[in-house]
Amino acid sequence: MTEFKDDLMDKTTRILLLYSKLMRGEKINKFNFCMETESLSRTFDRDIEDVRVYLSELFSNEELIYDRQENVYYFSDVQSNSLEDMEYLFIERMLLDTGVLRADEMQILLKHLALNTENVNQLTFREINYMKKYEEPIHEKAILKMHGDLTAIITKKSVIKIKYIKLNKKGVEREVIPCTIKYDLGYLYLIAFLKKSDKPYPAYFRLDRLHSFEILRSQTMDEKRRVDEYMKKYFKGIVQMYGGAFIEIRLSCKKAFYPYIHDKFRTAVIIQENDDVVNVKLKAFEGGFVKWMMSQPVDLVQIIEPKEVKQKMISEAKKMISIYTEEE
Asked: What torsion do the CA atoms of 98, 99, 104, 105 make, to the nearest 10 degrees?
């Protein structure tokens, strides 16, 4: 079972350091690396094996070679290409704006990125200044390692048992079939089918509420098909991590507003144009769509059909009016 403990960040830092050195074309001496990271010899062996597994899962052309004469490890034919400043600045901006990582994780990640740029000193200094103002998530949970572990599980197509902490602080256990991980509105979510449920769509689990997980077995052929079908047919229709039925929706919107809709719903297509107004068809999960639609300007976009969705919008609007009227 994988659990978060204080030493997990140390392992993440160590492996990232090892991998970044190898990617830069350095030859890694086991004794020197253990001295540098204050780690044991057997820990280094496990880290090296983790790197080998990672390369095999990526189907990478890189080969980790051990030179017995020099007692060093290195990548074959490594091409050390530093990040350009604009590449680093773009990644930095995305990471800081999402604010999904705990402060220590964010600092280490940005530092490692900065160390792989041409202007190391300048960008490292920049990273230090930004981290002084960085506001970490209120949950203060480490999720970098959890994300890496779950990504490997998804690649291996395993069935897992998770221990999940609900909003009311109650812990529950669920056997799930992982599909993917998705970011939305400040959180990372594991999207997974409940093994004991026949519902056609998966559930969403925030990574910061995942206490631990254990691998149960490999997915069956039917489970693999279930995941593949979801990713092909439904994944683009996720909005704000709310469920409901996957339905077709028709909207009328200003032509200038359509690109915003398409960026949010990659299933959206224009089916009719009239001057500066277009009719749009898209597919999405009903619950998430209603929540999103409630925050949109009615002078720019309106629902044409289905009537059931329009009725839910009316119901939500009435609740808001009732609450705020009572306050007055």
From this structure: -30
Residue 190's alpha-carbon distances to 91, 154, 178, 182, 213, in angstroms, are 22, 10, 7, 7, 12
| Structure tokens, 140 | 């203060």
Across the chain, mean pLDDT equals 88
Single pTM value for the model: 0.69
Question: According to the model, what pLDDT value does residue 53 have?
Answer: 84
Query: Are 150 and 190 a contacting pair, CB within 8 Å?
Result: yes
> Alpha-carbon distance 310 to 306, whole Å?
7
240 close to 217: Cβ distance less than 8 angstroms: no
Among 16, 42, 19, 17, CA closest to 30: 42
Q: Two tokens at 182?
A: 């998705």
Regions of the chain short of the pLDDT cut 50: 1-9
Q: Check: CB of residue 160 under 8 Å from CB of residue 216.
A: yes
Identify the burial level of 42 via C-beta atoms within 10 angstroms of its C-beta, where 0-12 means exposed, 13-18 middle and 19 or more buried.
Answer: exposed
Task: Render 1-55 in DSSP notation, one character per residue.
Answer: -EE--TTHHHHHHHHHHHHHHHHTT--EEHHHHHHHHT--HHHHHHHHHHHHHHH
Radius of gyration of the chain (CA): 24
Q: In what order do the strands lie in the sheet with 28-29?
A: 28-29, 72-75, 64-67
